[in-house]
Design brief:
- By secondary structure, the chain is an alpha/beta fold.
- The chain has one domain: Rossmann fold (3-Layer(aba) Sandwich).
- The chain is 19% helix and 22% strand.
- It contains 6 helices and 13 strands.
- The strands form 3 sheets. Strands 4-1-5-6-13-12-11-8-9 form a 9-stranded mixed β-sheet. It has a two-stranded antiparallel sheet with strand order 2-3. A two-stranded antiparallel sheet has the order 7-10.
- The chain is globular and about 45 Å long.
- The chain starts with a helix and ends in a 20-residue tail after the last helix.
């Protein structure tokens, strides 16, 4: 069975199962108590505007029905409260029955509070054990281990966009040879960021329409965003959405289709990641929110799903990356 036939069969099975629409208001279906998510948005590397809390990079909420970025105002380091993505996730939690605590303070991973959370949500960059770009308190090396141990022991983990651009493995990620050893965080999340090309519209093909949040999206959708090129995929990925590369602009995407959203188990923990979420407007797109809420429901164990590894079936050439697609970005001139 070829890749197209596999995807068609998955869609038919979803229809035949009669699963209907995804119940976004899932709270109360299994447990009446609200579950808690720790949203961590520290930037030790590049600070994405979607999680910035400064006036210089903060998002205007809405202008004439459009989400827009505030240009530089000169009011650097002025706290504007929660960043855009933090606000959206917090509002989704209030609407759908889970609590969100958004923080950039890595010290929480060494505190007793860590055990209070049912899942962790990362929109981060770089080595989070360093103060880095945003200068907020880092997590300690012991805090990193405590976090990873908590996931392996059964806590949920969710990552969006640059969560794969976090805690890079030793060595050169542009080396055509796969890394000899992955950072344990990369092993947990399921893949590692290489680089990205120009923002553009691209196709997300649904690999599993039965996964929570996917039943209303048909066989996929088109979305304008900043798309990550990824490598070092874990063999037990259950691919939910596929990055279709045909017709995309940029050397990063001159490769076969590869996973863009997936679920996997890590020890006893449930891990969900999507590469979507760079652009502000994406966070209020119904397709993105449906995928995100489905992943949250699964990671929090409010719903179950079959996450049998399918990466070899639906993206069999995901690890075939031409040398051109591993070219290092040119250093910016001072």
């Amino acid at each position: 069975m070829n890749r197209r036939e596999v995807l068609r069969a998955a869609g038919a099975a979803a229809v035949g199962a009669g699963l209907g629409g995804f119940p976004l208001g899932w709270i109360g279906a299994a447990t009446p108590a609200k579950k808690k998510i720790l949203m961590f948005t520290k930037s030790a590397g590049f600070e994405h505007p979607a999680i910035s809390r400064t006036a210089e990079l903060a998002f205007v909420r809405e202008i004439d029905g459009q989400i827009q970025i505030v240009e530089k105002t000169g009011e650097k380091k002025k706290d504007v409260g929660l960043g855009w993505a933090e606000k959206v996730l917090t509002d989704l939690g209030a609407k759908h029955g889970f609590d969100v605590n958004a923080t950039k303070d890595g010290r929480i991973f060494s505190s007793k509070e860590l055990s209070d959370y049912d899942a962790f949500f990362f929109y981060t960059t770089g080595d989070l054990t360093t103060p880095g770009t945003d200068g907020t308190p880092p997590m300690s090396p012991e805090g990193k281990l405590a976090f990873l141990d908590a996931v392996r022991a059964g806590k949920g983990f969710l990552g969006t966009h640059s969560a794969t651009d976090t805690f890079h493995s030793p060595g050169d990620r542009f080396d055509p040879k796969p890394p000899a050893k992955l950072d344990p965080y990369i092993e947990m999340i399921g893949a590692e960021f290489i680089r990205h090309g120009p923002q553009q519209k691209a196709r997300m093909t649904a690999a599993d329409q039965r996964f929570p949040g996917l039943s209303s999206l048909g066989d996929g959708f088109d979305l304008h965003d900043e798309w990550y090129a990824l490598r070092s995929f874990q063999p037990n990925l259950h691919v939910v959405l596929i990055q279709e590369t045909k017709g995309m602009t940029g050397i990063d995407y001159q490769r076969p289709p590869f996973p863009a959203t997936w679920a996997r188990t890590h020890g006893q923990g449930r891990v969900f990641y999507t590469s979507m979420g760079h652009r502000a407007d994406v966070w209020v797109k119904p397709e993105f929110q449906s995928v995100l809420l489905g992943g949250i429901a699964w990671a929090l164990r409010n719903v179950d799903a079959d996450v049998t590894p399918n990466i070899e079936k639906v993206t069999p050439k995901a690890s075939e990356i031409p040398t051109e697609a591993l070219a290092k970005p040119e250093a910016k001139k001072a």
